[in-house]
Amino acid sequence: MESRQASSIFEALSSDVRLDVFRLLVKNAPSGLVAGDIAKAMDIPSTNLSFHLKALVQSGLVSVEREGRFLRYRASIPLMLDVIAYLTAECCSDNPECCRAFRAESDVDARFLPTR
Amino acid sequence: MESRQASSIFEALSSDVRLDVFRLLVKNAPSGLVAGDIAKAMDIPSTNLSFHLKALVQSGLVSVEREGRFLRYRASIPLMLDVIAYLTAECCSDNPECCRAFRAESDVDARFLPTR
DNA sequence: GACACATTTCAAGAAGTGTTGAATTATCCC
DNA sequence: GGGATAATTCAACACTTCTTGAAATGTGTC
Fold first, then answer.
1. Integer Cα distance of B106 and B91 in angstroms
2. Using one digit for the tens of pLDDT, what is the confidence trace for A86-102?
3. Is A7 in Cβ contact with B11 (below 8 Å)?
4. pTM for this structure?
């Protein structure tokens, strides 16, 4: 991932509203939610929600698809995994020893990695 | 990690300048760099660099320590690992099957996980 | 103390982001 | 076509962030 794309993704997640929307969509992957459902959960004017959804779509973190009168939004899990990979690579690739030592302490992986 | 802290960290990484500075500091972990060295690498006025360094320090992603006439900045690798854990947890905890399937496709882990 | 150096803080303006209600577009159903 | 519903775009304003040079702060050295 290019660092310019990374900063644009971080920008998309830098607003409380957008992070909450994105988390909601992740929880509702892969089926997604239509805008009205998101609005109910978020309790903000629809016009403002639209503004934030547009930003999420432009970042690529969220995709949108028309479904009759509704618009269905979905979190892009693959891009999210790319972001995780980007952070992990930035952290480790040029400095593996340092990162490994901290990882051993915090034991991040054992808690969150999927079983394969 | 609280989602409010997460969005504040994403905000810190949402500027190209700050992401570049942070990546530079990660590459130079754990010794860090003094402000002047960062300024040389970044090619922006020192007053503007100061502004962005302050934002990074306030987010917690970077720490600062006086060293004689210099100020030494260091990336906080543990907090970065917390962010990775946060994203991973958001992605997987409520939706492990979905995330696992995507992971298997992109094979993120095999590339970046430390050997233990 | 006086000077030089590293870096920050301040103040001001430029640029960008967020919020809102009104108007618009798109779709469905009769 | 006409009316109802879902959601967006528009335009205006408030608010925040970014950038810059000038001034200030802290530290080392003579």
1. 14
2. 998 887 777 777 777 77
3. no
4. 0.88
